[in-house]
Amino acid sequence: MDEDTVEFCNKFIKSLEDCEEAGNFLEPVDYKALGLFDYPMIIKHPMDLSTCKKKLKHGKYYNFEKVLKDISQIWENCRIYNQAGSLIVQQADFMEEFQKKYLTENPLPVRMPQKRSREESDEISFEKKFYFAEKIRKSPQDVLIKVFSIVENNCKHSIEKMGDYFRIRVDKLDKTTFETIENLLNQEATKKEKKSLPPTGK
Fold first, then answer.
1. Which residues of 104-137 are buried (b: 16+ CB within 10 A; e: fewer)?
2. C-alpha span between 81 and 89 (Å, rounded)
3. Domain residue extents for the chain
4. Measured between alpha carbons, how far is 148 from 163 in angstroms, rounded to an integer?
5. CATH 1.20.920.10 correct for 3-105
6. In angstroms, rounded to a whole number, what is the distance separating the alpha carbons of residues 96 and 102?
7. Is pTM beyond 0.85 here?
8. Over its length of 202 residues, how does the chain's per-residue pLDDT go in tens digits?
9. DSSP for the chain?
């Protein structure tokens, strides 16, 4: 999350903590001290405001929706475990209404995406490179020859001679060459799948 969203989340959690009805939701439920030994069997995803703050501080949330999901889980857990209409459930209901009101009056700031530079937009993720390399490694000889030909013609600097054989440095491929080879590998995989299908009778 960007700094603005983190700051928004911190203020949001602080506003919840400051509510008079928040006392039972500030820390994890100490079910052993309270003698609630069935609590972990009933509540599968325990959550509280201090845990939300810690997760936010340590970068465990990727977006505001994840924060909101955890906070909403606090009120839901309370309703699941406790008797409907009980004081603590009334407190959870109040907190949920306060949450809705706060977010209506204080909407999440939206940052307009900046136009990425060509260098950034041409970057290939590590995950894509990894699966790409795996596809090449598992390809048959005839496909490898086609791949090598594409690289030799378009991105020769990514070829390294290793004794009696050549190695393609995936990390040195430019985006155009990468995508050309990726399309080839996908086409070859589709052909292989079609060949492996049993013949259909009429």
1. eeeeeeeeeeeeeeeeeeeebeeeeeeebeebbe
2. 9
3. 3-105, 119-196
4. 17
5. yes
6. 10
7. no
8. 788 889 999 999 999 999 999 999 999 999 999 999 999 999 999 999 999 999 999 999 988 989 999 999 999 999 999 999 999 999 999 999 999 999 888 887 755 445 555 444 567 776 778 778 878 878 888 888 898 889 999 988 888 877 777 788 888 888 899 999 988 888 888 877 767 666 655 4
9. --HHHHHHHHHHHHHHHTSGGGGGGSS---HHHHT-TTHHHH-SS---HHHHHHHHHTT--SSHHHHHHHHHHHHHHHHHHSPTT-HHHHHHHHHHHHHHHHHHHSPPP-PPPPPPPHHHHT---HHHHHHHHHHHHTS-HHHHHHHHHHHHHH-GGGEEEETTEEEE-GGG--HHHHHHHHHHHHHHHHHHHHHHSPPPP-
Which tokens belong to 119? 């260098």
C-beta separation of 124 from 174 below 8 A = no
